[in-house]
Amino acid sequence: MIDTTALFHELFQKTRFITKEVNEKLKQYDLYSSQWSIIYCLKTLGPSTQTDIWRYLNVEAPTVTRTITRLEKSGWVIRMEGNDKRERIIQLTEKANELIPQLEETVKAFEREMIGNLSDDEQQELLRLIKKMGANERS
């Protein structure tokens, strides 16, 4: 049987490395990976509530609120009133929509670099295995 501690240690180490490298690549846009995650979420889902965002990203609500505040101050997102006074809808700005293609290419170039040693079949298998991990926990 595999040493699960070693397996998860390797996963954590690789995740930290990826985050560090993505942060380095995003410096030119004055962004961090956590901010990119929210931008990508909004690009994918469209305008969303903060609740939708933190649930989608599986992070704590205060973390998302702080990150959205930073994105708003730097002109990447705007907050609009939702269905009631407390709800806020977060939407990408025109600036964000104009820069997203460049951002995506920067991130995709890094991703291609990261998986360059894997065949197409290995990439598909890795994706399948990652999705399978903990799947019974989410049901």
From TrEMBL:
The keyword DNA-binding belongs to this UniProt entry's keyword annotation: yes
Coiled coil: none
Superkingdom of origin organism: Bacteria
Residue ranges annotated for the HTH marR-type domain, each copy included: 4-135
Listed InterPro entries: HTH_MarR-typ, WH-like_DNA-bd_sf, WH_DNA-bd_sf
Key words of the record: DNA-binding, Transcription, Transcription regulation
Protein name (database record): MarR family transcriptional regulator
Source organism of the structure: Metabacillus fastidiosus
